[in-house]
Design goal:
Elements (H helix, E strand, L loop, with lengths): L7 H27 L8 H33 L8
Helix pairs in contact: 1-2
Length: about 80
Amino acid sequence: MKPNSPPRKELREQLRVAAAAQKLAIKRFREVIRDIPSGLPHPDGSDRIRIASRELSEAHNLVIALLVELDKISLDGGNEQRP
């Protein structure tokens, strides 16, 4: 494990928060898409889609990064450094 990486418990809490944010970003994205009944957005609709898509992508990336970090801890045998 990296010397400055957070302990497993803190990472799990960060993952819980990130997963909740991801779920909210998915909901927002779906709402934006549903708000465009014809499938052809107006100019402001394109911006809304782009913003929602960026938020969703960032949320996914954070969840993935946290899962990778937790996986690294598991592969290290759970040897967490204590202060």
